[in-house]
Design brief:
The protein has 405 residues and is an all-alpha fold. It contains 16 helices and 2 strands.
C-alpha cells in the first residue's frame, strides 16, 4: 500500500494481523509431522520445563505468518534498509536451521547476527543515541547498533526456555511496535509489525503449555532479528536519546531476562552461554507458579513496558524522561528481587544428573587423552578438531550436571 503515512487506513495493519495469525496457525499444524520426519526434535533438557520430545521448526510457522500477513496488509514497497532487514531475517533463519540440525555453537550465531546487523547499519537502519556529525557520535551509534542487533537477537533465543514464554512476549513486543508505528504514521513498520504479531500469536496456539512444537533456533534467531530491526525502524515523535528507549521498552522483558541470567551466571562463575534454569520464568516456577502462569507473567510485564514505550513516544520531552527514570528504577528493583529468588529444578533432575555425571566425566577424560596424542592431529586434523569441539561441549554439559547435583 504505497500511500502517504497520514492516509493509511487502520484496516491494513489489522488485515496483516489476521492474515499472519491464520497462516501461522495452519503452518504450525503442517511443520510438526515434517519436523519429526526430518528428526528435528527437541529432547528434554535440564533447563526446559517440558518432559517430552517436541518437534522443532515452529519458526517456519512464524515466518509464514510474517510473509502472509504482509501480503494480507497489501504488500510493501520497502527501501534499502527494509530490504537488508528482510534478507537478515532469512539469513538468520538459515543459520538457525543449520544450528538446529548440527549445532553450530554460540560464537557462530553471534558472528552471523553481528554481520547482519552491520549490513543493516551500512544501509541506514541505525540506533541513534547521539545526534551530531562528529566521529565520536558515529562510533557510539555504531557500537549501540551492533550491540542492539546481537543482543536482541540472542535475547529472544535465551528467553525461549519455557512453553509460550518467548512467543507470547514477542507478540506483545511486536504489537507495541505496531501501535507506535501507527501513531507515528509509519505504515511500512506498522504493517510489518502487525504481521509479525499475528505470526507469533498463530504459533502460540501450538506453543502454549503443553507445547506441541518449538520454534527452534530457526525461529528464535530470525524472530529476534526481525524485532531488533523493527525497533530501530521506529521514528516516534521524540528526540534522541529518549526516542531509543521506545525500542528498548518495547523489548524490555527479553533484555531484562538476558541481563538477569548474565549477572547471575557471572556472579556464580558460570559461562553465560551455558543453558540453565535461572531465567525469570524459571524463578517464577520455583516460587510456585505453573508453566502457563509463569509465561503469562512475562506477557503481562511486557505489556506494561509496552505502555511505557507508547508513553515515551507520545509524551513531551520532560514527561518522556520521567517515564524512562521510573522504568529504570523499577527494572533495577525487579533485577535485585529476581536475583534473590531460587532457581527452578525439574523433578528428579538431581538423581538424573548424578547418574549421568560419571559417564560424561569418563568421556571427557577419554577425549582429552586422545587429543594429547600428536598422532591424531597429524593423521586426521579434521577429526581432531571435531573431537576437541565434542570434548568442550561435554565439559560444558558436565559443569551443568555438577550444578544440578
Amino acid at each position: 500500500p504505497a500511500l502517504p503515512a497520514e492516509e493509511v487506513p487502520l484496516r491494513l495493519p489489522l488485515s496483516a494481523l489476521g492474515g499472519g495469525f491464520a497462516a501461522a496457525a495452519v503452518a504450525g499444524l503442517v511443520v510438526r509431522p515434517v519436523a519429526r520426519r526430518l528428526g528435528l526434535v527437541a529432547r528434554p533438557r535440564l533447563w526446559r520445563a517440558g518432559a517430552a520430545a517436541v518437534p522443532l521448526m515452529g519458526g517456519v510457522a512464524i515466518l509464514a505468518g510474517l510473509g502472509a500477513g504482509v501480503l494480507a496488509g497489501g504488500g510493501l514497497a520497502v527501501g534499502p534498509a527494509g530490504a537488508v532487514a528482510a534478507v537478515g531475517v532469512v539469513v538468520l533463519a538459515v543459520v538457525g536451521f543449520l544450528d538446529d540440525l548440527t549445532g553450530l555453537g554460540p560464537w557462530t550465531r553471534l558472528a552471523w547476527s553481528a554481520a547482519a546487523g552491520a549490513a543493516a547499519w551500512l544501509l541506514g537502519l541505525r540506533a541513534v543515541v547521539l545526534v551530531g556529525d562528529g566521529a565520536l557520535d558515529d562510533i557510539v551509534n555504531l557500537a549501540v547498533t551492533a550491540l542492539w542487533f546481537v543482543g536482541v537477537t540472542h535475547a529472544i533465543n535465551m528467553l525461549d526456555n519455557m512453553d509460550g514464554s518467548a512467543s507470547g512476549v514477542a507478540a506483545v513486543s511486536a504489537a507495541t511496535i505496531a501501535v507506535v508505528a501507527v501513531l507515528s504514521g509509519q505504515w511500512v513498520v506498522a504493517v510489518s509489525a502487525s504481521a509479525l504479531t499475528g505470526g507469533c500469536l498463530g504459533y502460540l496456539v501450538h506453543n502454549v503449555h503443553p507445547a506441541r512444537v518449538y520454534m527452534g533456533d530457526l525461529g528464535a534467531l530470525s524472530l529476534g532479528f526481525a524485532l531488533a530491526a523493527l525497533g530501530l525502524a521506529l521514528r516516534p515523535g521524540q528526540t534522541p536519546p529518549a526516542s531509543f528507549f521506545v525500542a528498548v521498552f518495547a523489548l524490555g522483558v527479553p533484555i531484562f531476562d538476558t541481563a538477569l541470567v548474565s549477572v547471575s551466571r557471572l556472579r556464580d562463575g558460570r559461562p553465560v552461554a551455558l543453558g540453565g534454569t535461572d531465567h525469570a520464568a524459571h524463578r517464577l516456577r520455583a516460587r510456585g507458579l505453573g508453566v502457563t502462569a509463569s509465561a503469562a507473567s512475562l506477557w503481562g510485564a511486557q505489556a506494561m513496558l509496552g505502555l511505557a514505550a507508547v508513553g515515551v513516544a507520545v509524551s513531551g520531552r520532560g514527561g518522556a524522561w520521567v517515564i524512562i527514570a521510573a522504568v529504570a528504577l523499577g527494572g533495577a528493583a525487579a533485577l535485585a528481587w529476581f536475583l534473590r529468588q531460587p532457581t527452578w529444578r525439574a523433578e528428579g533432575s538431581q538423581d538424573a544428573s548424578a547418574a549421568l555425571l560419571p559417564p560424561v566425566d569418563a568421556a571427557v577424560d577419554s577425549l582429552r587423552s586422545l587429543l594429547d596424542s600428536a598422532a591424531l592431529w597429524e593423521s586426521d586434523p579434521a577429526a581432531a578438531r571435531l573431537a576437541e569441539e565434542t570434548m568442550h561441549r561435554l565439559a560444558r554439559t558436565r559443569d551443568a550436571l555438577r550444578d544440578e547435583t
